[in-house]
Specification:
Layout: H1 2-10, H2 13-16, E1 19-22, H3 27-32, E2 36-42, H4 47-61, E3 71-77, H5 82-87, E4 95-100, E5 103-104, H6 115-125, E6 131-133, H7 136-142, E7 149-154, H8 160-171, E8 177-182, E9 199-203, E10 214-215, H9 223-234, E11 238-240, H10 246-250, E12 256-261, H11 266-279, E13 288-293, H12 298-303, E14 313-317, E15 322-325, H13 336-346, H14 348-355
Parallel strand pairs: 1-3, 2-3, 6-8, 7-8, 11-13, 12-13
Antiparallel strand pairs: 2-4, 4-5, 7-9, 9-10, 12-14, 14-15
Helix pairs in contact: 1-4, 4-6, 8-9
Length: 393
């Protein structure tokens, strides 16, 4: 506790110049004109914000000799600039977000709040993401089959297509690997000749239900198109929820639809995934489709009146209440799972818990309340960021 008080007193005035104060007037221009901008969203009344300030300042000093436009450390008073905080879903303090080429990265910083950890994080973010090879055996040896991998073949490193892939890879560096073979002579039959379209395929991990390669057939020169294709492959429509990533998933702000299953039950996961791909591809921004180990998450099951013997079970957690998909086998009925999700959005699920599925006539049935949300408890506290070693709800 004394360390941050001492730092506030002894830090030289020049150190404060390494962290730029941002407001509504200069925020957009700053994030657009720098490759990386590491932003500390804080509130003056927050004790934890005050503790972080001198640490953040000291870490920024280590990058004072970086090339102009490469990395900027910045801060935003979230109370005075509520429009910025609201836009980037900042509701706890302090929150650290990284902006790359004008766009906020998928994951905010959630690790240790020390000078060493902050510095190591930024150094890591400044590394080149794409692994480049000029020899086939080296590329094959470096491939990690346990991670989704994009494998490309280019003739020219200076092409617009190659530079676009470099930019896209920076955004999805934590989720997937990017490997590139360079040169027609080094990769005969793979790397394109002069004037030909580069090649890119996505190789799913060996854990994927469908491990077949998916080739890219679009326009490399259109950055947004390439980025969307990579995102669709790298961040699957159905993800696994664990106690390690649950807090991060809650911060995406979308309700959960979870298949609770036994750890070795591959079949129900495939049926669930196929149904989502078939019926809910347009709901990516409206609900998080997840798979969880029902043995680990037995407490949410108990709220639904279910136990491990009832697995597999599908339920929606709206962060207010939990709703049960009554019969797992109904997932095979066309439109049934989609209607379940649409009924959440329309409020029908909640209404039916109060009044039943039919219109109420005569004496109104007594109100009933759906089970309370359990995954809401995995959210960090509203006033500050917390890293908790959670093992149960």
């Amino acid at each position: 506790m004394l360390r941050w008080l001492i730092l506030l007193l002894v830090l030289p005035a020049s150190l404060t110049a390494e962290v730029v104060s941002l407001s509504s007037q200069n925020f957009e221009q700053t994030i657009q004109s720098n490759e990386l901008v590491f932003v500390n969203f804080y509130a003056d009344w927050c004790r934890f914000s005050q503790m972080l300030k001198p640490i953040f300042l000291e870490a920024s000093e280590k990058f004072k000799d970086a090339a102009p436009g490469k990395i900027m450390w910045a801060s935003v008073d979230a109370d005075k600039n509520n429009d910025i905080a609201t836009k980037y879903h900042v509701n706890k303090y302090p929150t650290l977000k990284l902006f790359r080429n004008g766009e906020v990265t998928k994951r905010e910083y959630r690790s240790s709040r020390s000078v060493e950890a902050l510095s190591a994080y930024i150094n890591k973010q400044m590394e080149v993401t794409v692994q480049k090879f000029t020899e086939r055996n080296a590329l094959q040896a470096a491939h990690n089959p346990e991670k989704g991998t994009f494998i490309g073949y280019f003739n020219d490193e200076n092409s617009v297509e190659y530079k676009n892939l470099l930019k896209v890879a920076l955004f999805y560096r934590d989720e997937c690997e990017f490997m590139v073979g360079i040169g027609e002579l080094n990769f005969p039959g793979e790397a394109p000749g002069p004037g030909q379209q580069p090649k890119l395929v996505f190789q799913p991990s060996n854990k994927a239900i469908n491990p077949s390669q998916v080739p890219f057939s679009g326009d490399f020169a259109t950055y947004e198109y390439l980025k969307q294709w990579v995102a669709d492959k790298c961040v699957p429509l159905v993800r696994e929820i664990t106690f390690q990533n649950a807090e991060e998933l809650t911060e995406e702000g979308l309700p959960f639809m979870i298949l609770f299953k036994k750890a070795d039950d591959v079949n129900s996961e495939k049926v669930y995934t196929d149904a989502i791909l078939r019926e809910l591809p347009d709901q990516r921004k409206a609900i998080n489709c997840l798979v969880g180990d029902g043995t680990i998450f037995k407490h949410p099951l108990s709220h639904l009146g279910k136990s491990e013997s009832d697995l597999p079970v599908i339920a929606i957690d709206s962060f207010r209440h939990m709703y049960l998909f009554k019969n797992f086998e109904d997932i095979n009925v066309p439109g049934k799972l989609r209607q379940f999700v649409l009924d959440l959005h329309s409020g029908k699920l909640h209404r039916e818990f109060h009044h039943g599925p039919d219109p109420v006539t005569g004496n109104q049935a007594p109100d009933t309340e759906p089970p309370p949300s359990t995954f809401e408890k995995l959210k960090p506290q509203s006033s500050r960021y917390t890293i908790l070693d959670k093992t149960e709800l």
